[in-house]
Design a protein that fits this description.
Layout lengths: L20 E3 L3 E2 L3 E6 L5 H14 L15 E5 L4 H15 L8 E3 L10 H14 L3 E5 L12 H18 L2 E7 L18 H5 L2 E8 L2 E8 L8 E8 L2 E6 L20 H11 L6 H8 L3 H13 L4 E3 L2 E3 L4
Parallel strand pairs: 3-7, 3-8, 4-5, 4-6, 6-7
Antiparallel strand pairs: 1-2, 8-9, 9-10, 10-11, 12-13
């Protein structure tokens, strides 16, 4: 072979104008990525909720539509099968679906090591046989015996999972822990171990606690991310599952803790931007500030003209001081 294969860009198949979703807004079709967060913040509940949604076609978290349901393959290293079944029973009850007949498959091996050639081959054969729309591996720390801080050791394992994704057109969801003391860092930077993990993801979901609230932060490689979503773990009879919290759960001003929210529309916009970890689009601001589109448009023009906010290609933000 002489040189590398090359093609003209105009000979490539045109990319779709709109993102293709596995779970609309949360997980891109065929994406690899991380569900990350601090201990005991619901990472496994979120991963299982996505798994049930993809297998059944029911909206994830009772809100985010699934475009093309299909088989799902799970490996839950920290929970015995009966615990996984009990959690899925609760999520299924909350979603109003039955587990019977769903193409939702659990790997029951005692352990799985991605740094073992034998285990990698066994996982590949399972994925090839089932052709899942989604592969869930929970958690990363139980899937290897490498140094998570060493990029040269982490990268080959992630490359293997990317290979499975490309070979079998399956999305891969990897549950991973945030580091201790990482609450003040940006979501991806708080992940434990090498920065390879954050860089690897096409779709990443991060669960974080702020005061007594649980927030879901979303990021995508090739699509705009929604504003942060407030979640709560809710028990209703036999159903125990994550669900969307009331919209005012995202308000974080001291006054809001006594039950009030900013009444002035401009204050709502400034508050939403102050709480955001990244610039927000007009649609994200509209939802976060709970304003009409026309009202928001006039406010944005006034606030930009006054220099109180900036409008960049990434969205609206408060100027750095």
């Amino acid at each position: 072979m002489k040189g590398l294969p090359v093609t003209r860009v105009d000979a490539l198949a045109p990319a779709p104008r709109e993102p293709r979703w596995l779970v609309e807004g949360l997980w891109a079709e065929h994406a690899v990525g991380i569900v990350g967060g601090e201990p005991k913040c619901g990472k496994t509940f979120l991963a299982l909720d996505l798994a049930l949604a993809v297998a059944s076609g029911a909206p994830a978290l009772r809100h985010f539509p699934v475009q093309k349901p299909g088989p799902v393959l799970l490996f839950c290293a920290e929970d015995p099968p009966d615990t996984v079944r009990r959690r899925l029973d609760g999520i299924a009850a909350a979603a109003g679906v039955a587990l019977a007949g769903l193409e939702l498959h659990l790997i029951t091996a005692a352990y799985l090591r991605l740094d073992s050639p034998t285990h990698r081959q066994a996982l590949r054969e399972s994925v090839e046989a089932l052709r899942p729309r989604l592969l869930v591996l929970d958690p990363f720390v139980r899937l290897h015996r490498i140094d998570e801080n060493a990029a040269q050791q982490v990268a080959p394992l992630l490359a293997y999972l990317r290979h499975l994704q490309r070979l079998f057109h399956t999305a891969v969801l990897l549950v991973h822990h945030a580091r201790k003391g990482g609450a003040r860092l940006r979501a991806g930077q708080a992940l434990r171990g090498s920065s390879e993990l954050h860089a690897w993801g096409d779709s990443n979901l991060y669960l974080r606690r702020r005061h007594d609230r649980l927030l879901l932060h979303v990021e995508h490689r090739a699509a705009a991310a929604p504003a942060d979503v407030a979640l709560e773990l809710r028990q209703t009879e036999h159903a125990l599952a994550l669900t969307l919290a009331p919209p005012d759960s995202l308000v974080d001003e001291p006054a809001s803790r006594s039950g009030s929210t900013p009444s002035d529309p401009a204050a709502r916009v400034l508050h939403a931007l102050a709480q955001a970890s990244r610039p927000l689009s007009r649609a994200q601001l509209r939802d976060a500030a709970r304003l009409r589109t026309h009202t928001l448009g006039e406010l944005l023009r006034e606030l930009v003209a006054a220099g109180r906010i900036h409008h960049t290609d990434a969205g609206y933000c408060i100027p750095a001081r």
